[in-house]
Amino acid sequence: MTDLALRREPLDRARLLTLLQEYGVYAGVAVLILANIALTPHFLSTENFRTQAVQVAPVLIVALGMALAIGSEGVDLSVGSVMALSTSLVSLYLGYGVWIALIVAVIGGAVIGVANGSLIAFIGVQPIVATLALMVAGRGIALVLLPQLKDIRDPAMASLGSGALFGIPYLVLIAAGLALAVGFTVRRTTFGRQLLAIGDSRPAAQLAGLPVRRVLILVYVVSGVLAAVAGVLASARLQASDPTSLGTLMELSAITAVVVGGTPLSGGRVRIGGTVAGAVLIQLLTATLIKHDLPPSWTQIAQAVVIVLAVYAARERGKR
Amino acid sequence: MKPTALRRRTTTRTLIAASLAAGLALAAGCSKSEDSGSKSPTASDTADAGQKVATPAGDAKSCTIDQFGGTKLDIKGATIGFSQSEKEANPFRIAETASIKAEAQKRGLKLLTANAQSQFSKQISDVQDLMAKGANLLVIAPLNSDGWGPVFRSAAAKHIPIITIDRKINATACKDYVSFIGSDFISQGKRAADQMITATGGKGEIAILLGAAGNNVTTERTKGFKDEIAAKAPGLKVVFEQTGEFAREKGQSVTEQLIQSKPGITGIYAENDEMGLGAVNALKGAGKKAGAVKIVTVDGTRNAVQGIVDGWISGVVESNPRFGPLAFQTLDDFAKGQKVSQDIVIQDSEYSKDNAKADLGKAF
Fold first, then answer.
1. B1, B24, B30, B31: best mutation site toward chain A, by most A Cβ within 10 Å?
2. Cβ of A111 and B20 within 8 Å?
3. Chain B interface mutation, best of A50, A51, A283, A297, highest count of B Cβ atoms under 10 Å
4. Are A233 and A57 spatial neighbours (Cβ–Cβ below 8 Å)?
5. ipTM of the complex
6. Contact B300, B316 (CB under 8 A)
7. Does some domain include residue B88?
8. Fewer CB within 10 Å, N- or C-terminus of chain B?
9. Residue A145 Cα distances to A133, A233, B41, B91, angstroms
10. A224 part of a folded domain
């Protein structure tokens, strides 16, 4: 009897860890929502859900690009600085109208992406180092372009930041649309499959004749463009361009969302649904602690615990 | 490698380099920003907003050049070095540096400046550079309170007097440095509490948007506020304290959470203007009316004082950044051999709906 139980245990533990990695993030979100419904006054209101969704939108958009970078066995540390660059560009070009400003900001993000991708694909710099260089340079350029916070008074930007369609804020609609698009790209397109193959094993992908360099550059361009979009939306919400503080530590929030969502750091796999849930989980965690007026340092500790759990689950599964 | 392949790769690289260069040129060259309608303050705007001393002269400990151990000099022929701690990216630092420069120009003095960009090691080498370049007198806005030993040793060797502004250095006045000029942050918190009591009638629940953690400005503005509330308005309860890290975005996010979970909140005390403006954004977004939640902030930037005029903010306690006139007067007096106070606490003014419109020009 005991013998049998002992022999069965490792299998159960492994299966449990697999389940934890696959669905843990969704369970975490469900638990947090239920706990908040029980414990937090006024939690169950449309207003509250709207607030959480609007606050998570920029983080989520950045995390989508980060998921692609991590899926290709890389990482993009420059995303926060790209947000700062994009907010500077928006402010500088708003005189031509919102659309021009948006396009210039997105081009700015793409240019940083090209620089990241080229360093990685052509020169062979490690992604963490290449994007670290652009993280430093990006904020520098942003602050040269716009040295201090500047208010945005453009009515079109205001409506982008606080407007809604059928009661759903534009920010949330855009984030949802981008999540669907990136999810589709990963699953259904050649680019998506090539990206995963490269993340799995770059030498093998090279031997198989995949356009490794082109795909890698494109990955970082997409990440840069998404970060630039997030920067524009965050500026619209704030009604100001603030390159000094916008996007600081955003790279860490995005990596957290991706990792907690079950995407392994070793590449070859991207979970977009999990990334969305990961971003929501961190948002709900922060919101819960703020609403209950717990010390801010607790938020950081709670986030750390969630990250350790997620990485533990991923590692144990990898050992199998 | 085949020559054609090599050439193609070189072409790709050239293209990438060219697109990067073009992108940067575009960004810098043909921008056209929105006409914001607000003008930056000029010297004439701010002429009447100079600092006044709060502590009566002669009351506190004083310092003379004989005690300090230097030789008298005429400030007219001297070179003055100014070391700024943080990038001039927020209204306070912009106004502070501008005030030092304007006063040096007004007095016709030679001024050398340096900015440490929030890196303490850079500030130490900045100050040593200033001394090497021939500064006879130093004005320092310190980033840290500690770690100034090396600077003091080289300054003492050359008998160069130092005045610190806005933050204090943990060292001996009249020996390591001459005197400190700055605001009393505890009293700023107290006066914010007085404004909050007036605005709310002394009853209700209030929230505090704290500044960055581990910063003496945060702890002192909090202590002054809470002590005053406890002493004068037992009917006011602080029910919420979260950090907004002195940034507008964080102030907005935190306030959005606050008004969801505590819709009946009476007032919000923001420990700087930027977080207060973020709170205003959040209240607007939640469909609240101007004045429904009383907001009191500290700093006195133009945007916040405009917020009082518009009815969103109830009161602003000033933290005056215009150190130029007082710093140079102190240096002048000291160099001539007169007594100067070791601790010069400045009198900050404040804005409420009674004076906001008239005094908008004084805001920085």
1. B31
2. yes
3. A51
4. yes
5. 0.83
6. yes
7. yes
8. N
9. 18, 19, 21, 17
10. yes
Number of domains in chain B: 2
Pick A293's closest partner by Cβ from B9, B241, B303. B241
Q: At what angle do helices A272-291 and A46-71 cross, to 10 degrees?
A: 140
Give contacts of A 226-255 with B, CB under 8 A.
Answer: 234, 237-240, 242, 244-246
Residues of chain A contacting residue B88, judged by C-beta atoms under 8 Å apart: 147-148
Residues near A207 by beta carbon (within 8 Å), at least 6 away in sequence? none
Q: Which residue of B has its CA nearest to A96?
A: B32
Is B39 within a domain?
no
Q: Which of A299, A27, A255 is nearest to A131 (CA)?
A: A255
Tokens of A203: 């030498």
Contact A91, A150 (CB under 8 A): yes
Nearest-by-Cβ selection for B263 from A40, A42, A145: A42
Q: From start to end of A172-261, where are the E strands?
A: 240-241
User: B248, A149: Cβ pair inside 8 Å?
Assistant: yes
Residue indicated by tokens 């090209």: A114
CATH number at residue A228: 1.10.3470
Which of A103, A123, A148 has the highest number of chain B CBs within 10 A, making it the mutation to test binding with B? A148
Q: Is residue A309 part of a domain?
A: yes
In a domain, A138, yes or no: yes
**Digitized pLDDT (tens) for each residue of chain A, 320 residues in all:** 444 445 555 567 777 777 777 788 898 899 999 999 999 888 988 889 999 999 999 999 999 999 999 999 999 999 999 999 999 999 999 988 889 999 999 999 999 999 999 999 999 999 999 999 999 999 999 999 998 888 998 988 988 988 889 989 999 999 999 999 999 999 999 999 999 999 999 999 999 999 999 999 999 999 999 999 999 999 999 999 999 889 988 999 999 999 999 898 888 999 999 999 999 999 999 899 899 988 877 877 887 888 888 777 766 554 43
- Does B327 share its domain with B277? no
Q: Does residue B355 lie in a domain region? A: no
Q: Looking at chain A from residue 168 to 227, which residues have their Cβ under 8 Å from any Cβ of chain B?
A: none
* Domain that residue A260 falls in: 43-319
Q: What is the CATH number of the domain that holds B176?
A: 3.40.50.2300
For B:94-113, CB contacts with A below 8 A are 94
What is the value of pTM for the model shown? 0.83
Domain residue limits at B308: 185-318
Determine whether the interchain pair A95/B33 forms a contact, defined as Cβ–Cβ distance below 8 Å: yes
